């Protein structure tokens, strides 16, 4: 017998789950309150220039997960792309993530890998044996000078608080290298979809058992029509903010248009505290296989999300964690709803992890539903 499911949100979580269920013969209704699919991965071609724009900020696909890589390649051609980021600090440009080039640039040296390793080890604060905060992690491994230059200002702008208040896990996203490898990621697979992320999600959703309704808020839908719901909207919103609001950082993108080239690379970080934005992305550099005469850039400004702002980064501090516990307790009582994705579980998730979890959750659900004969 065909069963009917509701997926709330047409980002990677909702789309991947819908696809898994639909391929097993179930009918799935996917709703999204926005007028487009693909959530914050949404890309679209700029009308004037034809450049592929990452509407909600830069997304680079990278993973160590062979299955997820195969999955994404079912729906698009992944073009070779390596994320190489630069940083401007006090009027100079450096290579990121911190690598041998950065170290030699910053200290005006020409150290070998072994020399740099010793040098940086000496700068590290040895009194910090078990770093808990972002700052402790940076000071323990890099010392104060590199921390101040590349992390403190950027992080204050990005998170709106001192790195002493942030968990070490945020810094652990970034590698430090003692060679000239300036690949921002350590993962085995990396690439950019040939025609953008929206097309991938469109293809994932392109199945006869899937119906998509855009401009449709969860609150406006009759839930009784569905036997189970996969909800990728904000967790606190599902419960009408009963315990208060979970904190998010939001982003504002200020567009810059120019002829020719603007900055000569996809991502330039700005680590000075007195520069109001965190980074500038030049979109055409995300598709190096295309040629465009003109250019479109986004200056990225981060701030605390207000009630009507788009939530981007979950702020997982002590207060939020306590609130999250309360919402998770409520969520565990909702037996007909599975909470998924970045907003549904309130986590800082990369695209590959989102896809992996969506596949696993759909499979686990089908296995259990099959056993209890639903
Ligand atoms: N970060 C930093 N300086 C940089 C880049 C990153 O201090 O030049 C810190 C910052 O706190 C940021 C975190 O490292 O939030 C993770 O950086 P990533 O580039 O992974 O952030 P995303 O691209 O997800 O915004």
Explain the overall architecture.
This protein is of the alpha/beta class and 374 residues long. Among the domains are: 4-37 and 205-246 and 314-372, NAD(P)-binding Rossmann-like Domain (Rossmann fold), CATH 3.40.50.720; 85-170, no CATH class. The protein is built from twelve helices and 17 strands. The strands form four sheets. It has a seven-stranded mixed beta sheet. Helix 1 links the parallel strand 1 (4-8) and strand 2. Helix 1 (12-23) packs parallel to helix 12. The longest helix is centred in the C-terminal third of the chain and has 21 residues, at 351-371. It binds uridine-5'-diphosphate. Uridine-5'-diphosphate (UDP) is lined by residues 87, 96, 150-151, 154-155, 158, 170-171, 173-174, 269, 271. Uridine-5'-diphosphate (UDP) binds at residues 87, 96, 150-151, 154-155, 158, 170-171, 173-174, 269, 271.
């Amino acid at each position: 017998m065909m069963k009917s499911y509701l997926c709330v949100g047409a980002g990677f979580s909702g789309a991947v789950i819908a696809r898994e269920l639909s391929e097993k013969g179930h009918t799935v209704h996917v709703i999204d309150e926005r007028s487009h699919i693909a959530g914050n991965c949404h890309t679209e071609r700029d009308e004037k220039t034809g450049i592929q724009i990452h509407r909600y900020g830069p997304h680079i696909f990278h993973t160590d997960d062979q299955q997820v890589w195969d999955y994404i390649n079912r729906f698009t051609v992944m073009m070779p792309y390596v994320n190489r980021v630069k940083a401007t600090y006090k009027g100079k440009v450096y290579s990121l993530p911190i690598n041998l080039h950065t170290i030699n640039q910053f200290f005006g040296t020409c150290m070998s890998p072994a020399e740099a390793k010793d040098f940086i080890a000496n700068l590290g604060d040895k009194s910090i044996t078990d770093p808990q905060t972002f700052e402790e992690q940076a000071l323990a491994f890099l010392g104060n000078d590199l921390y101040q230059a590349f992390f403190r200002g950027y992080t204050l702008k990005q998170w709106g608080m001192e790195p002493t208040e942030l968990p070490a896990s945020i810094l652990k996203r970034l590698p430090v290298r003692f060679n000239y490898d300036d690949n921002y990621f350590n993962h085995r697979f990396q690439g950019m979809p040939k025609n953008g992320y929206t097309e991938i999600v469109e293809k994932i959703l392109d199945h006869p058992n899937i119906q998509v309704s855009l401009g449709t808020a969860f609150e406006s839908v009759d839930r009784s029509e569905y036997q189970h719901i996969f909800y990728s909207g904000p967790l606190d919103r599902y419960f009408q903010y009963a315990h208060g609001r979970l904190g998010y950082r939001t982003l504002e993108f200020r567009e810059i248009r120019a002829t020719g080239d603007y900055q000569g690379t996809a991502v330039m970080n700005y680590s000075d505290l007195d520069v109001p934005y965190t980074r500038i992305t030049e979109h055409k550099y995300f598709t190096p296989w295309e040629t465009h005469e003109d250019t479109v850039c986004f200056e990225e400004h981060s701030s605390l999300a207000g009630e009507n702002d788009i939530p981007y980064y979950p702020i997982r501090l002590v207060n939020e964690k306590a609130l999250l516990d309360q919402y998770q307790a409520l969520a565990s009582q909702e037996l007909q709803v599975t909470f998924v994705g970045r907003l549904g579980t309130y986590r800082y998730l990369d695209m590959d992890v989102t896809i992996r979890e969506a596949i696993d959750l759909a499979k686990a659900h089908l296995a259990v539903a099959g056993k209890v004969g639903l």
